[in-house]
Amino acid sequence: MQMHPVESSMMKAIGYDEATQTLEILFNSGKTYEYSGVPADVFADFLAADSKGVFFHSEIDECYDYRMVKKGRR
After folding, report:
1. 31's torsion region: left (phi>0), alpha (psi -120 to 50) or beta?
2. pLDDT tens figures, 9-62
3. What is the DSSP letter of 15?
4. How many domains does the chain have?
5. Do 59 and 27 meet the contact criterion of CB atoms below 8 Å apart?
6. Beta strands of 18-72 (E only): which ranges?
7. SS3 state at 20
8. 3-state SS, one letter per residue, for 10-61
9. d(CA 64, CA 47)
10. Which domain holds residue 33?
């Protein structure tokens, strides 16, 4: 999955796999989460959003199933 660096106080990069509709977010904490069932247009809007944090909280967090795929740094 290609990750796109983003300017955000809460995340470093986001990526998307259109075939599986999986969104991946690398947070500044070092933790990585996958969100499933995310439509391609939601990812495109996320990538284009002026505030990634605001978009995440309103359009992604608590809206899609997710799982941690990598724990943060210790």
Report:
1. beta
2. 999 999 999 999 999 999 999 999 999 999 999 999 999 999 999 999 999 999
3. E
4. 1
5. no
6. 22-27, 32-36, 66-70
7. coil
8. CEEEEEEECCCCEEEEEECCCCEEEEECCCHHHHHHHHHCCCHHHHHHHHHC
9. 17
10. 3-70
Longest alpha-carbon distance in the chain: 35
| The overall pTM is greater than 0.90 | yes
**In the chain, what are the helix, strand and coil shares in percent, each to the nearest 5?**
25, 35, 40
Sign of CA dihedral 28, 34, 20, 60: negative
Structure tokens at 3: 């990750």
CA distances from 51 to 8, 18, 68, 72 (A): 7, 23, 23, 23
Q: Is the pLDDT of residue 1 over 90?
A: no
